[in-house]
Amino acid sequence: FKEALANGPQNMSVTVLNVGLWRVYSELDPSRIQLFQQGHDSFMGQVKIGDKGVDSMLEKLMRVPVEVLGADGVSRTMVIPAKITRGKNWGEMK
Fold first, then answer.
1. Distance of alpha carbon 34 from its chain centroid, rounded?
2. Helix crossing, 2-27 with 53-61: angle to 10°?
3. Do 41 and 89 meet the contact criterion of CB atoms below 8 Å apart?
4. pLDDT band at 4 (very low <50, low <70, confident <90, very high)
């Protein structure tokens, strides 16, 4: 029962990530970001050192509103925030 119940939220978070990734792929100039891989709740890419302006664009493109039904039966809009980390390699991400 627990596994079946957890499927909905997990599926929704992956769907939100996929929509955000599609936006990044479609709307950002490929010379500004190279997408490498997607994890279950994140993705990794590469940008030029010093191109900090891309961070705000990524955060905007990753904001995907989702309608959720609360326990009180009221529908609400939820947005899962995106967090950008940078580093020269995985060990130096900040």
1. 15
2. 130
3. no
4. low
Mention every residue, 6+ apart, whose C-beta is less than 8 A from residue 17: 38, 41, 42, 43
Q: What is the dihedral of CA 2, 75, 39, 58, to 10 degrees?
A: -160
Q: Please state whether 67 falls in left (phi above 0), alpha (psi between -120 and 50) or beta.
A: beta
Look up the pTM and report it: 0.77
Among all chains, which residue has been given the structure tokens 């991400």? 93
